[in-house]
Amino acid sequence: xxxxxxxxxxxxxxxxxxxxxxxxxxxxxxxxxxxxxxxxxxxxxxxxxxxxxxxxxxxxxxxxxxxxxxxxxxxxxxxxxxxxxxxxxxxxxxxxxxxxxxxxxxxxxxxxxxxxxxxxxxxxxxxxxxxxxxxxxxxxxxxxxxxxxxxxxxxx
Length: 156
Prior knowledge:
There is one protein chain. The protein is mainly α. The protein contains five helices and no strands. It has helices at about 5-10, 20-45, 50-75, 90-115, 120-145.
């Protein structure tokens, strides 16, 4: 049996970016792109000057530079990346994207909690929560698909 092809996959350095890296960059960039308009809204609503400054610094010194760096890397790799919507506005598409992200995080936390507990009553309760959150997630995806608001990960 010729094992050179099997051992070659472990010793050869892959060309380009593998899908795991591409998806990681996509997810992180999308999360930040979705978060900026929401943070802009929070900055506008906040009354406390320190809180306003914290939010503004977070947007301008953390989120935006990281979005730009990730987008640049994806662009260099020939990958599409989540576009930055117009700042200081929160349209229906951005609201739907934010709701999807909230539900994605909720479902992730739901499953983690479900897997951590051993009490049957807690597991039953969490299963109901998972089912409800999954139904809401399905509905927001269906709405986004009907409105042509889906933003799909890059092709690699």
